[in-house]
Design goal:
The protein is globular, with a radius of gyration of 21 Å. Helices cover about 65% and strands about 0% of the residues. With about 350 residues, the protein is mainly α. It is built from 20 helices and 2 strands. The chain has a two-stranded parallel ribbon with strand order 1-2. The two termini are about 40 Å apart. The structure holds zinc ion (2 copies). One zinc ion binds next to helix 14 and helix 17. One zinc ion binds next to helix 8.
């Protein structure tokens, strides 16, 4: 039994490695991990409160920003409020996207159909087709650290060029253009270029995306009526640039290789997972819905996001306690090590 844990710190981040030993895990008093999970009940109510709070704060900020934008006539102030509003839009949608992520794992309701209805509703604002997102995200869990992981931002450093691509809208255009490849099970080689483009268009314009575009268009028109074209465009800019930037940044912080290792021959080419400190910023602002404990989510995707902190505390007392200790860090420390 000891053997299974002798090399666990080196193998645990590989897909399914944790699952292989999960039944043997127990704390100092021989209390099993699986029994612990059975008595720890997830709180869906807390999740709903969190989601509703995000929408309410988002609407409040939108209201304040519109008011501020309309109150100042100076061009420079208008530019500042344009950027501020884009930032708020991007951050709020990034938060909703994290709620959508747990929906992809059926963590929003016990009943899978109700879970998917809530996830579908969240996807309208984030522009995500739930069916496609689930395929892409499950591939991320299985192909973690491999070149064909469709959520592979972390394989490439966040360079100045990459940042320019995000804030010029090139990155989101590239992402949308590749959705057909990311969702396909096999690599299809179309000889006919027109067929290839037609497939890309058909994969992108699903019914939920049509609804999503309509919703965004209505918000755009509402902001245009309440203010002017530039302010309404700040919504579009926030959605197309800040939102994918925050998503990519989180992905890099969760899995990216440290700068020193990347540049030296210590480059590991292995799956990297981190456990961020629990504080208000990590738990509710930048890495919400359990994303601050992404390592545990990769090891055991059955762990509900509302019990992540207590699962981490329990695992600290088990045979994988060192794995937890070695992956504990903070968002800011990782940011410094990665860039
Ligand atoms: Zn996941
Ligand atoms: Zn991940």
């Amino acid at each position: 039994m000891t053997n299974n844990f002798s090399n666990i710190d080196n193998t645990i981040d590989k897909n399914l490695e944790f699952v292989k030993v999960k039944k043997e895990l127990s704390d100092d008093s021989n209390f099993k991990y699986t029994e612990f999970l059975n008595i720890k009940k997830p709180s869906y109510f807390l999740t709903y409160i969190n989601i509703v709070t995000i929408y309410l704060i988002f609407l409040t900020f939108l209201f304040i920003n519109t008011h501020l934008y309309n109150s100042y006539n100076s061009f420079y102030f208008k530019i500042i409020f344009f950027i501020l509003n884009s930032f708020c839009v991007g951050l709020a949608i990034h938060n909703i996207q994290q709620a959508l992520h747990v929906g992809l794992h059926y963590e929003l309701h016990k009943n899978k159909k109700i879970n998917d209805c809530i996830t579908y509703f969240l996807g309208l604002l984030t522009g995500v087709d739930v069916k496609q997102a689930r395929i892409i995200h499950m591939k991320h869990h299985i192909r973690h650290a491999e070149e064909d992981d469709p959520e592979n931002s972390y394989l490439y450093p966040m360079t100045l060029l990459k940042i320019i691509k995000f804030f010029s809208g090139i990155s989101i255009a590239e992402y949308c253009f590749k959705i057909d490849q990311k969702t396909s099970i096999q690599n299809e080689n179309f000889e006919n270029k027109n067929k290839k483009i037609l497939k890309k268009i058909l994969v992108f314009f699903t019914f939920s995306r049509f609804l999503s575009i309509t919703l965004h268009l209505l918000i755009f028109l509402y902001l245009y009526k309440k203010s002017n074209l530039l302010f309404a465009l700040s919504w579009v800019y926030g959605f197309l640039t800040f939102f994918p930037f925050f998503a990519s940044l989180l992905n890099i912080l969760e899995h990216g290789e440290e700068k020193l290792k990347r540049k030296s021959d210590q480059k590991t080419n292995r799956a990297i997972n981190r456990l961020f400190d629990t504080n208000f910023f990590s738990k509710y602002i930048f890495a919400p819905f359990g994303a601050h404990k992404h390592a545990i989510h990769h090891w055991d995707p059955t762990v509900h996001h509302t019990i992540m902190d207590s699962v981490e505390n329990f695992l600290l007392k088990t045979q994988v306690g060192n794995c937890i200790k070695n992956r504990k860090t903070t968002l800011f420390k990782t940011l410094k090590e990665i860039f």
